[in-house]
Amino acid sequence: MAGMAGLTAMAQPGAGAQAGGTGEERILPAYARAQNYRSLKQSSYDRTGGNADRWPIKPGETIEIFNAAGPGVITHMWFTIAAASGNHLKEVVLRIYWDGNAKPSVEVPAGDFFGLNLGQYILYQSAYMNCSPVKALNCYFAMPFKRRARMTATNEGKQDVNAFYSNIDYQLVPALPEDALYFHAQYRQSTPTAATTNEWASNGDANRLKNPDGKLNYVFAETRGRGHLMGVTLGVLQNQEFWMGEGDEMIFIDDESTPAIVGTGSEDYFCGAWDYGGRDAAVPFGYLYNGSHMITNAERTGGRYCQYRWHGDNPVTFNRYMKMTMEHGHANHRADNWYSVCYWYQTQPYTDFPGLPPAEARIPVMKSVEGPGAARP
Fold first, then answer.
1. Kind of pairing between the strands at 92-98 and 148-155
2. What is the pLDDT at residue 22?
3. Which of 146, 188, 263, 268 lies 20 to 30 Å from 231, alpha-carbon distance?
4. Which one, of 251, 250, 218, lies nearest residue 235 by Cα?
């Protein structure tokens, strides 16, 4: 990923065998050469030496799950959760604070952070996130910090989290590269998205409905500074019949009025095609940088989709401003429930996030919307 090569090269097979190096450099990959960092882990292990390797979290309680002085880099996070509530993936909130900031640069419900945007465990594998058997959550984004990193988990539900298991691997280094950036992740939702028409049966009248500026698009995140976009996860709960996609992604870069990047439809942005197979033939899929790892009841009221797209091959750079958006249906003609996370890096920790919706509002519930094909109470 751009700006992070010095931190990640050590983990890339063959990274030390680049063209133009000396003969010795070409012989050995980076992982077979001496490393200049100290490997460490902070976990929920039982401090008494017993086997209670977990933290309970009472309703309304916040626990600190990581706190380290830098310079360093978090390389891997693993969690698994046992809780009384069936909605705990939406109720437990992860927050990460960089270099002593009072506000977090990561503020996301646990399930959404790991691509489980509808609060259900779904097995899948990708470059940066996965859900492994049984209910194991993994993140492999590199997260550098210069002076300090702090991470918390808050139970915003009304029932106990009986056991929060945590393993966070990190490295302490003599110094970070000057171009090292801070990791960010922001949660947003719209339940439902505001439709511009009720003509969703035809997926919008392409000849009549126009959206050249993206003003009514769904917003994944908006930030100011210099950095690059790494991707998004998106969960959709259909409130209406028919195909929920076809919305173009529009990314505003250093210009708040006109998108610099415009795509051809949401299924195309997530690197699928043709409605992921359609109403009767849709099949979940998951690859290194893209997937729709959850598809149930496709193109029907109550249908559910979880999707992800990583820009690890080509992070979307910005120098002053970035807003990641997408149409909800062609020209924003759909009124479904959207739940998303946007992931990016930038030079300074950014903390000007919108308020997190309360826990009960984050739980996916179909909404009644008016018009033909609408969901009914």
1. antiparallel
2. 59
3. 146
4. 218
The pLDDT of residue 206 is 58
Q: Which two tokens stand for residue 221?
A: 């995140």
Which residue, 277, 210, 224, is CA-closest to 252? Answer: 224
Q: Cα separation of 371 and 240, whole Å?
A: 9
Pairing of strands 182-190, 106-109: parallel
Architecture per CATH, 38-172: Sandwich (2.60)
Return all residues near 207 (Cβ < 8 A) that are at least 6 apart: none
CB 287 within 8 A of CB 214: no
Paired residues of 212 in beta bridges: none
Per domain, the residue ranges of the chain are 38-172, 182-362
Distance between CA atoms of residues 306 and 324, nearest Å: 18
User: Quick one: pLDDT at residue 25?
Assistant: 65
The pLDDT value given to residue 19 = 44
Low-confidence ranges of the chain (pLDDT < 50): 1-20, 373, 375-377
Pairing of strands 218-224, 304-310: unpaired
- To the question of pTM greater than 0.85 for the whole model, the response is yes
- For residue 373, the model assigns a pLDDT of 47
CB atoms within 10 A of CB 351: 15
What local confidence, expressed as pLDDT, does residue 205 receive? Answer: 61
- CATH class of domain segment(s) 182-362: mainly beta
d(CA 255, CA 366): 35
